Amino acid sequence: MTTPIEDQVQELTGQYYRGLEVLQALDEPMTVDELTAELELDTDEVRNYVAYLAEFDRVSRDSETVRSAK
């Protein structure tokens, strides 16, 4: 049996873990295209995860370069 909140929790958990993957890939500043290639994801997906991480001040972005906010 699933509850209505379970789907939302699974979605947020997936987003969180994908964000961690992006953070781990950022051992040095990279462009979105470089992150896309390294993570083998769609460019729009990477941009969405970068925006998600930026909301929490985990990354910074100038032009096309993304940096971890370590």
General description of the model:
The structure is a single chain. This protein has 70 residues and is α+β, with helices and mostly antiparallel strands. Helices cover 61% and strands 14% of the residues. Strands 1-3-2 form a three-stranded antiparallel beta sheet.
Task: Quote the distance from N terminus to C terminus.
Answer: 41 Å
Can you tell me the residue ranges where pLDDT is under 50 for at least 5 consecutive residues?
Answer: none
Characterize the main sheet. 3 strands, antiparallel
Q: Secondary-structure element order, as H and E?
A: HEHHEE
Number of helices: 3
Give the averaged pLDDT, no decimals.
Answer: 89
Say how many strands there are: 3
What fraction of residues sit in β-strands? 5-15%
Quaternary structure annotation: single chain
- State the strand order across the main sheet: 1-3-2
Question: How would you classify the helix and strand content by structural class?
Answer: alpha+beta
The global form is: elongated
Helicity range of the residues?
Answer: 55-70%
Radius of gyration equals 13 Å
